[in-house]
Amino acid sequence: MIVSLRLAVSVYAFIGSIGAHRLEDTLHVRHSKCEIPGELHEGVCRSIVECPAFQKIMNGSDVRLIGREEFVEKLKCGKHDGSEVCCPSGETYRLLEAEEDDYCGVQALKFRIKGGSITEIDEFPWMAMLLRQNRNTNSLYYHCGAALISRTFVLTAAHCVAIDAADKKQDLLKYVRLREYNIFQDPDCVLGGGFMDCAEEKLDYKPRAVLIHPGFTLDSPSYDHDVGLIQIEPVPPYSDFLRPICLPELEVDNGAHPGGVFSVAGWGKTDFFSKDLGSVSFSPIKLKVMLPFFGLDQCKKVYEELNVSHLRETQLCAGGRRSKDSCAGDSGSPLMHYDRRKAVWVLTGVASFGVQDCGRPGVPGVYTNVREYLTWIKQNIRSI
Hints:
Layout: H1 2-30, E1 33-34, E2 43-47, H2 52-58, H3 68-75, E3 84-87, E4 117-118, E5 127-133, E6 140-148, E7 153-156, H4 158-161, E8 173-178, E9 189-192, E10 195-198, E11 203-205, E12 209-212, E13 228-231, E14 261-266, H5 274-277, E15 287-294, H6 296-304, E16 315-319, E17 334-339, E18 344-353, E19 364-369, H7 374-383
């Protein structure tokens, strides 16, 4: 009798151990690591009811989320019935966190010029237009591009804002425009997914101060130190249509190496709309183009043959492919690299100069290397 009792206890203990292992295995699968779109840190696969961050999306409390269905689909993990999602360690997904001053380089949910293609309405929300005013007609016109780097500053090329004392008829900078997409619309709206997606109204700011790097001179053939800052009134709270781009700190990849790929956006001269808009020389809609890194040593040789010498380490080159280039009017626009590890866009360069017939094979564009000017940028932003 005693032997039988001991045997029964052993059997129950064995069965119990099997159940425990199965339960542990189930929890291991459910709580396995998973990737969250746009976030550096991994999440954990959990039941929907165990994920407060996911509940915020589903109950509509995070109305700023664009592309909700696409994002939810990418969060699915574990079981195939959609009952488990990739959950962050905090109570909200990074893309939905409150906008902070250092929350830069993120655009909505998609990690989405001459020979360029049209951007999404919420793509590159740090892009700015520099508008001059015609002295005779008082009409505004697009002159250069720029990028928002904080609530009160945009970064551009020095030659876009430098005053030429010899040019008495030069039109001066009138406004810095933000939240622009299509110059023929305000607010901007696009139809997609069966509904109309609209941005907030455009913002025009008069420059409070214009700062040009002290080493820049207009008569320099190689445009040394071609970088400038424009101070504006503080912008409103950040949104999917207004956000700063990240500066190229040492811990982020700025793409300035072999194999690096960049994006340039702007409203510069283009042949994209030539069939529809005839003589329009500037794009009415924000365009983008992808450009490869072009080594500086090789770039120097190319420009020496064009009688432009003395390119420096403070400059970098990109492009050199047929009909793929930044072009006239894209000066000052950001050369951007997407750091996949940090999941942010980084301001690598500022469009400085190139050949007149842009998009020529083997001849890249020249950009100011922003990382070389971080100290100057930060000192001036803090001192004003």
